[in-house]
Every structure is written in structure tokens, then in C-alpha cells.
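Duplicate of #3305? Posting structure anyway:
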């Protein structure tokens, strides 16, 4: 019996059976088992043993399963007993057959004993874990809030990996300290508890530097440490003149520092591609770089001072002396002052560290982070192995005022295009024309052909097809004419190499040029977001040789994949071929005839040709061409101008191709033509897809200015052989880089992915340093030490999940898994996510939720397959993830692979509803009921109960609660929101901000007497409406009609004022969005369908009106109505927000005195045609700054989860106060209003009025007040009721 690669069940990872057995039983036992696998007879004992290992393995790698067993003694005991029962059965069978084969029986006995020991360890682990958790809480609870000590599944899976998705062990606990001062005591507490400490920021690393290697680790997440100081002119040690600097805490996101610097007219030089998610602490620990490194170097070059906690729990401050404000290796001698202090801050003395500047990186290279020792300099480039960075001070630079961005598209041969990089960089070096003209190259980035395709690059040249290579660069200087001349010269230089160039002048156009560069992570989308990621640094003069070497590897990999295709096709064609016989009673052999033999012969001929090409790549071209006829090689025109051409160069320039489409597919289609053989062709296509899926290729993008090449290999993690092939390619790539005088890492570090490519001699200085400062491994135990490589690392694979699973096939779980499988873990979603507010104890970014969701799906799948029943706790955890989303959809835009976690959340809520596991929430239920009502009397009753009595009671309760200090703490430091909240907690959070008051007593329909759902109201101003006037269909929605009726009335009043004929829907209607977002898809779909049918009837009834515009005054209504296909209801119509419509009509305020405005753009902005902030500025007639972030109400969100809403509001309050302070910065003492264009946001924003001294209002309401008078509402109602309303029977 042939042993399969994966026989251990529940293994949805890149591990084969071999790695699992070695991990659980040891390498010696794997050797025994591997021998037995080839000898087994029935395989029953093997299957039982595999079941045991599969159960242990899945629980070990899934904290949700582990927590469920920790919380449920009965389930835990039942599982352990089931494991032991299986082993007893294996032993029983062994004893029964021992006499037949004593030698084999002895081997089985060894395995059973080892498995029993593994089960014993597994059973004991739960008690040990509970004891250690209690100890950790006792020790660390003295130094930080209980909420900051996290054992939950989401926290642990969020910190088990970084952007690589390599995993070794889950952290035992995750710590999220609130302040810098807490870190020292927490480090000492972890040491006392016996846990190794792993510093962690944004989790964007590409080498596994923050991946735990031991199960007893504490990850200290620094994302709450976001203090950022002002840009200051500081006199640094060794200087007399001040220089711009900025102090940042370790958790500050890199991009925030860049923004602060830019606001002061300065530049922060550290700008990795992960800048929107990476943190300052990680930048220091990894010595991060980026495109600006070509001018000012990496993190090391730009640090003036940093503070850290050392492995002995003491404070250490490192200060650079005599800073050269440039690249550190250009300074002859570099000096640092090290000051140490005890936990209380008492000085323990200082020392001076001196090292040659040239020793900081390999000579001739712009980047190099392979020297982990770095002269014994603490913190920098150490990857969190010698302490944790707490804060840093950076030097900031002055960017020349003129910037032009060039984009160069190369359509010729890559080997001829790559030297352009050297030509460009040389032109700007000292002594060269660019430098002489006072112009600098501030960045030069490269994308190869595969990246061009992956990022969806739009070709700017008017040629057909994608370019082979793209360069994007910034050219800066003080003289605009000189900069333009330099940009033109760069383009002229590259024109000779088959390039077309483009120059961007405006900031907006320059940003567009750089946009593609930010989406490079999309290279691995087709492999479910997993790739082997390497970055090397190559001397620029050898860059062409490196690219040639990569092309050589790619050609070989491609041909080998094609040869595998030939083998798979031969196997398929030799087997039983499927035929479409119809009613014919003819044998398959007779139908196939000689087609099988013809196809096999042809495939074999092609295989021989391709094999000859692979074996003769280095054959001189003249010799190889002489044998082309023998193998049937068809060659085109040779465009590759290599000095000593070989057969490789023919393949490199595509003049000789190895092509399935051109060489195999057409002939096979001809052989098997006809309806009868369609199934055969379908099978051939399936074989091709399967083999092609395993094709490995190498893709390049680079910081071309300093030779830092990011060399990426996308891999399907479920394809074991593909992963091995990729690893072999990496071996060749690293050898190639070293052979060209390069190094194996320029900015990504070493971590666990590159350790094998550094020699013991190269690592010896660091390991001696580690032994001196941290002999017990208190920080990042095992990292950068022997054995700290990929041997024990695995990555999960969605592709291995659920082929046989009912829960995957019959529910939305399969769709959810499909929607999240491409996540790159890059963290670009974090800055825009409403539920990622670390300072408010809210760490539910889409990245983290996707990691958690994937494990919960695995838990569902495992428990369903074992038939032990899905734990109710997992449904609670699934509810928890689904609750932590406002469905704003903002995460989709920055995502390189277009994942919209809002849509995923809706699918999760639908799944929970279908399974009957949605948590009942009275607030949400009441809101949904109110929005769905249509009967006017019931709406009036419920509106009175909710808004007149309920809001008033809430405001009174808020006043009392605030007076006794009940809400102060939840607002100042919101607690964590893990799990279902208690009634008491819900009430406290619901009361911590007052609901709005002074709302209209009746709905807009009630005031106008148009509540009858059999009547279509048509409102027009008899004095202004003419036959040429616009006819508009206004859909007010729930928020503008039954909640904040002043919004609907103001919209109607302004339409009335501009002379438009306004058609309203008959009766009270909801758009269906609230139901859809709440997970009630069936109700939402029914409302949508009913409304569309109704609107068709309205259109038919009013066919005498030429309705060309559908108006909305709510963002969620806009989102839902975009699905209504209004162009089929009112032909030629468009959807427009009321404010956009007024802008088009030229309506705006002028000369408003005593009031200043800010604008809150809703998460669901209704303005889709024009830029919302521009609309607000134009309509209000004055500058209106943006107040960013979610208001925290998000429809029914604040009713359903007021505790999470409190966390979201924490961030919004800071933003409102900041903008209000800026508006009052010049001494302005008038009213500050925050305007919006969403009814739900109006409610949410009004709840901040007391905090920031602002007043919330709607743009159209504010315009009506100024343009129509303070009494505008009563005036409009009176005018409309005096002959302004036509009631048309439906």
C-alpha cells in the first residue's frame, strides 16, 4: 500500500504526516512509523493512531478548541478517554498478532508507548495551563489592568504569526500595556512567571521575527503606546546647531510619524511599504527601510535616541553622539552613549559604545541587516531578542520643495532594461550631472512583469499589453526648472532601452503613480495569500546579473512544470477516458480508435522537445539551433543581444517558447474534436489547471535606488511538493545573491525564514552577545539561535478544509472561508477600521478578525467531523467577532486583495441566524421592529415610546449616572468587550452619553398628512415649478422620516425652494439595508423586492413625469438603492444625494458669521458623485475641515452593543476635540457645529455635544435654517399643506 502524504485527519496545514509525528512523538518514532507504513496490511491500527495524533494536533494549534476544553471538564475528559481507548484498541490488535510477526509487533509497541506518553502530556497540559494562567494573573495583575492580560483565542491567534503566516507555537498570553511605565514591571513579572517575552507592534514582519517559538511566551503588544510629541528643534550631543527631531512611543504607526513630520514641513525617512500598519518599535528592532533610504538611510541612520527595557528588567537609554544626519556608514566613527537605570529610575551609570561606521553594513550596499551583532548596539536590528523598545527620538529631514515623479515603462528585454537602474542612480551621484544641478533621487522603485500583473497596473503608454518592467521614482530639488530637466533626462536615458516615460507634477497625480507600489502584497492572491518572502541586497552594477539569474530559475521552474503536465496528461490519456456517447451503443475502444495512441505519441514528442530545451539551456546558441529541426523547435526573431548567446537567451526573449497553449492544447483539441470527446477535453483542461496550480515562479520588486530586491515566491500551502520546490528555489536565490557580492536581507530581518542562510561564523558574534545579555532567553527565546528556523513552522491552508464537511457545503461557512482566504495579514486595514482602537482596548481589526474567523471555522469543521457536537462556546465566539464590526466597508479600499470584512460580517450574522445561534439583543430587536413597521398608528406609538419617553428617560438617567461617577471610568478607559455583556454593563454603557433632545414631535409624513400607503405624494411649489422644472423621486428612508423628520422636511423644503417636483414613495418604507446588515438577509431581500415592485407601479402611475433623478438623504439608503436598478424603473435616471443636487443647482450659504463648521463624513457616505468634503465646503461657503472616524452609533450598533460603541466613541471624541480646538485656535469664541449627511450619525454626533462644546446638525437642515429662516419647518409645512401637495392614487 502506497503511503499518502497526509493521512492524519483534521490537518489543515502545510505539515505532512512526517512533521506532525516528529512534533508529537519525536524523530525516532517517525522513522519507526514510516517503516511500518510501507508494511501495513489493513491499516486499521494506523488509522486509529492517526486519529489520536490528529485530535492532539488540532487542539494544540487552535486556541478556541483548547479554551473550550479548559472550560468544560466533561468534554475534556471524554476526549482524553477517547484517545486512550483508541490506543488500547491498537495495543489489543498488536497483542493478538504478535506471534505472526514479532519484529513488527515490537515496532508497534514502541509507537503505542510513545503515543500514550503524548496523550499523557496532552491531558496534563490542561491542568498546567489553568494553574499558570492563575499565576500570570496574580503576578501581572499588580502592574496592569486585568483587561490587558489576554488569554482569549482571538488575542492569541492575532499574535501567533506576522505577515508571513508561519506559525510555530501560540503565545501563552498577550499583554497590551496602557503606558510606557507599565512595560518594565510587566517584563519583570513575565520573568517571575517563567515566560519568555516577545515584543510586538503592528505584526507586519516578513521573516517571523515576532513568531513565538515556545508555548510559554508572553507577547507584549505595544499598539497602545501611541504618544507622539511635537516636531522640535533639538540640539543633539556633539552639535551646536538645532536639528528637527520627534519623539514617539513604540506603538506609533509609522505613517503617523510621517504625517506629523510633513505637517511641520519635514520628512521622516523610514517609510517601509507597511508604513500604514507597522510601528516604531518594530522599525527600530528590524532596522526598517523603504524608498527614502536611498537619500537618508534606514532606521539606524535616523535614530537620535531610544529607550528600552533589558532582559534584567532595567531601563536602558541609548543616545547617538555626533549624529551625521545622513547614512551611518559614511561616518568614520560612530559613538553611542548607553545610560542604565534600575526599575525605580535610579541611575546605574553609563558607558560609551564606539564602532566604525563602515561596519554597520556591508561595503558598497545601501542596506544590510544581516549583522545581528552590530557592534553590540542594543535594540537595533536585534529583532526583539535583547529587550523591548519603549520609545525613540528620530531626526527629521528637510525635503527640497520641488518634487516630480517619473514613471518608466519598459517593453523590451528585461536584461537590457535593468541596467537603466544603474544609469539613473549614477546620474545623481556626487560628481555626476544630476548632483551638479542640485537635484537628488529621493526614491526609485521597481516592479517586474509578474508584479505589474498582480497589482492590476494600468499601462500609461499607448502600446498594447503590459510592460516587462516599471520604475517609479521621485526627483527632488530646489529649482523647478532643474528638476524638470532632470526628469526629462531620466526619460531620455531610458528611451534608448525601450522605455516610455511619464512625469507627474501635481501631488494628486504623483500619489496615483505611487498607488500601484502600495499593492505589491497582491502577488500571492492566487495562492491564498501565502508566499515565501525574501529580500536581498545586490550591488547595483550586478543587478542585471541577478535578474538574469532569476529569469534562469523561472525558466527552469516553468519547463519542469510543463514536463510534469506532460506526465500527468500521459497518465490521464492512458486511463479510461470519459465519453459523451448519447444513445449510441458503441464500445469506448471503438469510438476512441487510434486517437489515444496519437495523443500519447504527440504528448511524448512535446515532452522530449521540452526536456531537451531544459537540459541544454547553457548550450551555445549556434550549436543548439543546429538541432532545432531534430526536436521540432520553432524559433522567432532573436531580440536578445547577449554577448555570448546560449539557448537560455532564446527562451528569455520568448523567441523560443515552451507553451501549453501553442504546442499542446491545439493539437489535442484537434485529435479529440467533436461532441463525443468533449468530456475528454474537459478532463485534459482539469489536468492542466491542477498541474499549473503547482507551478512555482519568482517575482521581483525592489527599492532599486539602493539595490534592495524583494524576491517573492507565491506558494499554495496545501501543496507539499510546491513548498519543497519553492524552498529549493530560495536556496538558489540566496546562493546567487551571495555570489554577486550581495547580502540575504536588506530590511526584513532574518527571523526564522533566513537563519539557515547565515553561517555559524556570521552568527557567532550575535550569539555571544545574546549569551552575555540574555543567557536565560528571557526575550524571544530560540530566535536567531540554532534550531530557530522553519523546521517546526507550519502555515494553515483553507484549501484543505471542508471537502467532505456538511457544515461547509450546506451553510454560509464555506462562503465565509472563501471570502477571507486571500488575506495577506499586511494590516493595511487597521488605520481605517472603526473597531481597531488600541487605546480603547479595541483590537478587532479585519486582519485579527480574519485570523480568528479562520480558526473558528476550523473548530466548527473539526467538531462536526468528530460528531462530538459543535460547542456552544464557539458560536458565542463567532458572535463576538461578528458583533465587532460596524459594516462600514472601509477596509476594502486599502486591501490589496479587496477583502470587504463588512460583507464577511453580514455572512457571519446570516450563518448564526440560520443556525439559531444569534444572541438575542432587546435593543437591536426593538430597533429592527421600529424600522420595519408600516402602519402609521403603530409607528406613532412606538416613536412616542422610544424617542419622546425613552430618550427623555435616558437623558435623565445619564445625568444621574454622571453625577455619581458611574460612567466616567468607562469613557476614560473603556474596558475590553470580549464575550457577551451583562445587563448591568449594557445599561452603564448605554447611559454614558445622552441621547439627542428637541426632536420634532411628529414624522414628516404625519405633519404633511401623507401617511396613506395607497397615495403617491407629489410636492411642488406652484410659484416656481414649470414644465421645464426637474422631477425628482425622493426616498427619505427611516432615518430622515420616522426618526429625524427634520432632515426629510429640510430636504423637501429645499427641493420645494428650487422649484423641483418632488415625488415621495407611498407610505412608510425602509430600504432593507438595516435588515441585511443585521444578518436578516431574507427580510432585507424581501423588502428590496417589494419596494422595487412598488416603485415600478409608481413609475407607471406617474408616466407623465420625466423623473431623471432619485434623491436620497441617507448613506445606507444610497448603498441599498444602488442595488434597486433604478435605471430600469425610471429610464435614464441617476442616484444623487440631496447635497450633491443642491450643489449642482448652485445653492450655497454665503457670509455666515459667528459659526464655524467641521464635517463628519459618514462611513456610508451618500455622496458618491462628488467628493463629500468639497461638497460641504462649497455648500457652507467657508472652509470646513474633516472630522474623521466613526461616530459610534452606526445605525443600531449603539443599541445592540453599547459597550463596543463606547470604545469606538473614545477615538471619535478625540478627533472632534482636536478639530474643534483647531477651529478655535485663533481665539474664535462663536459656535462650532459638526455637520453630517447621515441620520444615524446625526444621533451619534449629538451625543458628543457636552464633551467638545459642539453642536451636531445636518447640512441640509443648516442650509434651510439660513436660507429659509429660523421658522423654516413650520413655514414649509404650512405652504405644502396649502395646495403644494398632489395626492395621486396608486
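Output from current build:
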Amino acid at each position: 500500500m502506497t503511503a499518502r502524504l497526509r493521512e492524519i485527519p483534521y490537518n489543515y496545514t502545510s505539515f505532512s504526516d512526517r512533521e506532525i509525528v516528529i512534533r508529537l512523538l519525536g524523530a525516532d518514532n517517525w522513522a519507526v512509523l514510516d517503516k511500518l507504513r510501507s508494511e501495513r496490511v489493513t491499516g486499521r491500527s494506523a488509522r486509529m493512531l492517526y486519529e489520536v495524533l490528529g485530535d492532539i494536533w488540532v487542539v494544540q494549534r487552535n486556541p478556541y478548541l483548547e479554551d473550550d476544553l479548559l472550560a468544560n471538564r466533561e468534554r475534556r475528559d471524554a476526549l482524553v478517554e477517547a484517545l486512550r481507548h483508541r490506543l488500547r484498541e491498537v495495543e489489543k490488535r498488536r497483542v493478538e498478532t504478535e506471534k505472526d510477526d514479532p519484529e513488527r509487533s515490537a515496532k508497534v509497541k514502541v509507537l503505542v508507548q510513545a503515543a500514550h506518553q503524548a496523550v499523557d502530556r496532552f491531558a496534563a497540559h490542561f491542568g498546567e495551563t489553568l494553574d499558570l494562567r492563575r499565576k500570570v494573573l496574580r503576578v501581572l495583575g499588580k502592574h496592569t489592568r486585568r483587561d490587558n492580560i489576554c488569554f482569549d483565542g482571538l488575542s492569541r491567534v492575532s499574535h501567533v504569526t506576522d505577515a508571513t503566516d508561519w506559525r510555530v507555537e501560540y503565545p501563552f498570553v498577550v499583554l497590551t500595556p496602557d503606558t510606557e511605565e507599565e512595560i518594565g514591571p510587566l517584563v519583570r513579572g513575565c520573568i517571575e512567571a517563567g515566560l519568555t517575552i516577545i515584543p510586538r507592534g503592528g505584526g507586519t514582519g516578513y521573516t517571523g521575527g515576532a513568531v513565538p517559538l515556545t508555548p510559554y511566551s508572553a507577547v507584549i503588544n505595544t499598539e497602545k503606546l501611541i504618544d507622539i510629541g511635537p516636531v522640535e528643534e533639538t540640539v543633539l550631543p556633539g552639535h551646536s546647531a538645532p536639528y528637527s527631531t520627534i519623539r514617539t512611543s513604540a506603538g506609533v504607526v509609522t505613517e503617523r510619524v510621517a504625517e506629523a513630520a510633513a505637517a511641520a514641513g519635514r520628512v521622516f525617512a523610514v517609510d517601509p511599504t507597511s508604513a500604514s500598519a507597522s510601528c516604531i518599535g518594530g522599525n527600530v528592532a528590524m532596522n526598517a527601510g523603504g524608498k527614502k533610504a536611498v537619500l537618508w538611510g534606514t532606521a539606524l541612520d535616523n535614530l537620535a535616541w531610544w529607550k528600552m527595557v533589558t532582559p534584567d528588567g532595567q531601563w536602558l537609554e541609548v543616545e547617538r553622539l555626533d549624529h551625521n544626519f545622513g547614512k551611518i556608514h559614511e561616518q568614520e566613527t560612530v559613538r553611542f552613549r548607553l545610560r542604565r537605570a534600575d526599575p525605580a529610575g535610579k541611575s546605574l551609570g553609563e558607558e560609551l559604545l564606539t564602532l566604525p561606521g563602515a561596519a554597520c553594513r556591508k561595503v558598497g550596499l545601501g542596506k544590510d541587516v544581516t549583522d545581528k551583532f552590530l557592534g553590540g548596539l542594543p535594540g537595533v536590528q536585534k529583532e526583539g531578542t535583547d529587550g523591548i523598545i519603549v520609545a525613540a527620538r528620530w531626526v527629521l529631514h528637510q525635503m527640497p520643495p520641488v518634487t516630480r515623479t517619473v514613471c518608466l515603462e519598459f517593453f523590451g528585454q528585461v536584461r537590457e532594461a535593468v541596467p537603466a537602474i544603474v544609469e539613473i542612480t549614477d546620474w545623481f551621484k556626487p560628481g555626476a550631472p544630476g548632483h551638479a544641478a542640485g537635484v537628488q533621487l529621493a526614491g526609485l522603485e521597481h516592479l517586474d512583469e509578474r508584479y505589474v500583473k498582480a497589482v492590476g497596473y494600468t499601462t500609461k503608454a499607448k502600446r498594447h499589453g503590459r510592460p516587462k518592467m516599471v520604475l517609479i521614482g521621485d526627483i527632488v530639488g530646489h529649482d523647478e526648472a532643474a528638476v524638470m530637466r532632470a526628469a526629462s533626462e531620466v526619460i531620455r536615458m531610458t528611451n534608448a532601452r525601450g522605455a516610455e516615460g511619464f512625469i507627474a507634477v501635481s501631488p494628486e497625480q504623483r500619489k496615483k503613480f505611487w498607488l500601484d507600489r502600495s499593492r505589491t502584497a497582491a502577488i500571492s492572491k492566487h495562492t491564498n495569500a501565502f508566499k515565501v518572502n525574501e529580500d536581498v541586497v545586490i550591488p547595483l552594477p550586478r543587478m542585471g546579473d541577478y535578474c538574469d539569474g532569476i529569469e534562469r530559475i523561472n525558466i527552469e521552474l516553468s519547463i519542469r512544470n510543463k514536463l510534469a503536465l506532460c506526465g500527468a496528461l500521459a497518465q490521464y490519456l492512458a486511463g479510461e477516458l470519459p465519453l459523451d456517447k448519447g444513445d449510441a451503443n458503441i464500445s469506448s475502444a471503438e469510438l476512441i480508435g487510434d486517437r489515444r495512441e496519437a495523443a500519447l505519441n504527440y504528448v511524448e514528442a512535446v515532452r522530449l522537445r521540452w526536456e531537451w530545451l531544459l537540459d541544454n539551456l547553457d548550450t551555445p546558441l549556434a550549436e543548439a539551433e543546429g538541432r532545432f529541426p531534430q526536436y521540432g523547435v520553432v524559433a522567432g526573431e532573436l531580440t536578445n543581444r547577449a554577448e555570448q548567446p546560449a539557448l537560455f537567451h532564446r527562451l528569455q526573449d520568448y523567441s523560443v517558447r515552451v507553451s501549453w497553449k501553442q504546442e499542446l492544447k491545439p493539437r489535442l483539441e484537434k485529435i479529440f474534436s467533436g461532441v463525443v470527446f468533449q468530456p475528454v477535453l474537459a478532463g485534459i483542461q482539469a489536468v492542466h489547471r491542477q498541474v499549473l496550480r503547482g507551478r512555482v515562479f519568482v517575482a521581483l520588486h525592489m527599492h532599486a535606488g539602493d539595490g534592495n530586491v524583494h524576491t517573492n515566491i507565491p506558494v499554495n500551502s496545501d501543496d507539499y511538493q510546491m513548498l519543497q520546490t519553492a524552498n529549493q528555489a530560495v536556496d538558489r536565490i540566496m546562493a546567487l545573491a551571495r555570489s554577486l557580492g550581495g547580502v540575504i536581507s536588506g530590511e526584513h530581518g532574518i527571523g526564522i525564514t533566513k537563519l539557515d542562510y547565515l553561517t555559524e561564523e556570521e552568527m557567532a558574534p550575535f550569539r555571544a552577545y545574546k549569551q552575555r545579555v540574555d543567557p536565560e532567553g528571557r526575550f524571544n527565546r530560540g530566535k536567531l539561535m540554532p534550531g530557530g528556523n522553519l523546521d517546526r513552522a507550519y502555515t494553515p491552508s483553507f484549501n484543505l478544509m471542508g471537502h467532505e464537511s456538511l457544515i461547509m457545503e450546506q451553510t454560509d461557512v464555506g462562503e465565509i472561508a472563501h471570502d477571507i482566504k486571500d488575506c495577506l495579514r499586511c494590516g493595511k486595514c487597521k488605520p481605517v477600521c472603526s473597531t481597531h482602537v488600541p487605546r480603547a482596548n479595541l483590537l478587532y481589526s479585519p486582519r485579527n478578525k480574519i485570523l480568528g474567523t479562520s480558526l473558528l471555522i476550523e473548530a466548527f469543521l473539526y467538531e462536526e467531523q468528530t460528531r462530538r457536537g459543535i460547542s456552544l462556546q464557539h458560536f458565542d465566539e463567532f458572535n463576538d467577532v461578528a458583533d465587532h464590526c460596524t459594516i462600514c466597508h472601509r477596509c476594502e479600499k486599502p486591501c490589496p486583495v479587496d477583502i470587504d470584512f463588512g460583507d464577511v460580517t453580514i455572512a457571519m450574522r446570516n450563518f448564526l441566524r440560520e443556525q439559531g445561534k444569534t444572541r438575542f439583543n432587546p435593543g437591536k430587536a426593538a430597533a429592527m421592529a421600529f424600522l420595519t413597521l408600516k402602519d402609521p398608528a403603530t409607528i406613532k406609538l412606538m416613536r412616542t415610546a422610544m424617542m419622546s419617553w425613552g430618550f427623555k428617560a435616558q437623558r435623565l438617567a445619564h445625568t444621574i449616572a454622571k453625577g455619581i461617577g458611574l460612567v466616567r471610568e468607562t469613557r476614560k478607559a473603556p474596558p475590553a468587550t470580549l464575550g457577551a455583556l451583562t445587563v448591568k454593563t449594557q445599561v452603564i454603557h448605554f447611559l454614558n452619553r445622552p441621547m439627542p433632545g428637541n426632536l420634532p414631535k411628529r414624522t414628516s409624513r404625519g405633519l404633511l398628512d401623507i401617511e396613506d400607503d395607497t397615495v403617491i405624494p407629489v410636492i411642488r411649489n406652484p410659484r416656481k415649478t414649470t414644465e421645464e422644472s426637474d422631477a425628482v423621486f425622493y426616498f427619505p428612508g427611516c432615518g430622515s422620516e420616522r426618526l429625524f423628520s427634520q432632515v426629510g422636511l429640510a430636504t423637501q423644503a429645499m427641493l420645494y425652494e428650487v422649484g423641483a417636483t418632488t415625488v415621495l414613495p407611498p407610505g412608510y418604507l425602509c430600504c432593507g439595508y438595516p435588515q441585511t446588515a443585521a444578518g436578516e438577509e431574507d427580510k432585507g431581500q424581501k423588502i428590496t423586492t417589494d419596494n422595487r415592485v412598488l416603485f415600478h407601479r409608481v413609475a407607471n402611475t406617474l408616466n407623465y413625469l420625466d423623473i431623471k433623478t432619485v434623491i436620497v438623504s441617507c448613506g445606507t439608503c444610497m448603498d441599498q438603492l444602488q442595488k434597486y436598478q433604478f435605471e430600469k424603473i425610471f429610464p435614464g435616471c441617476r442616484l444623487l444625494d440631496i447635497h450633491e443636487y443642491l450643489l449642482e443647482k448652485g445653492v450655497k450659504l454665503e457670509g455666515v458669521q459667528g459659526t464655524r463648521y467641521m464635517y463628519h463624513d459618514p462611513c456610508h457616505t451618500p455622496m458618491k458623485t462628488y467628493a463629500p468634503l468639497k461638497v460641504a465646503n462649497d455648500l457652507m461657503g467657508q472652509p470646513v475641515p474633516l472630522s474623521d472616524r466613526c461616530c459610534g452609533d452606526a445605525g443600531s450598533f449603539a443599541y445592540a452593543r453599547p459597550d463596543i460603541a463606547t470604545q469606538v466613541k473614545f477615538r471619535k471624541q478625540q478627533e472632534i476635540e482636536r478639530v474643534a480646538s483647531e477651529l478655535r485656535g485663533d481665539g474664535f469664541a462663536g459656535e462650532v457645529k459638526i455637520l453630517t449627511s447621515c441620520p444615524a450619525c446625526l444621533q451619534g454626533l449629538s451625543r458628543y455635544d457636552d464633551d467638545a462644546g459642539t453642536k451636531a446638525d445636518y447640512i441640509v437642515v443648516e442650509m434651510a435654517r439660513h436660507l429659509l429662516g429660523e421658522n423654516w419647518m413650520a413655514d414649509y409645512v404650512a405652504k405644502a399643506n396649502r395646495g403644494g401637495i398632489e395626492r395621486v392614487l396608486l
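Confirmed duplicate; merging threads. The first strand starts at residue 149 and ends at 150. The chain has a mean pLDDT of 91.
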